[in-house]
Amino acid sequence: MSRRGVGAAFCFLATFLYILPNLLAAIITSGSAQFETYIFLLNQNIVQEFNEITIIAFVVGIIYLLWAEISEYRKKK
pTM of this prediction? Predict the structure, then answer.
């Protein structure tokens, strides 16, 4: 897999991790109409943990994309 592919994969992973807490809370509360349960689940530490992992994955993806572009630029030069 090329560096661009790996960078894009990390960016997609970051996007998925960004929406995952909301998705999990929606799935858990889908059987009930309790909006308070949904808010409670989103306010837990799980959101903070996902945010940290999301930022790391996004930064790694951007680094891979930049690395690929710099390598391509140096080859053409």
Answer: 0.73
Q: Which residues contact 60 (CB under 8 A, 6 or more apart)?
A: 10
CB-side neighbour CA atoms (13 Å) of 13: 17
What are the pLDDT digits (tens) for 50-65?
A: 788 899 999 999 999 9
**Residue 36, number of CB atoms within 10 A of its CB:** 8
Overall number of domains in the chain: 1
Q: Which domain holds residue 16?
A: 3-76
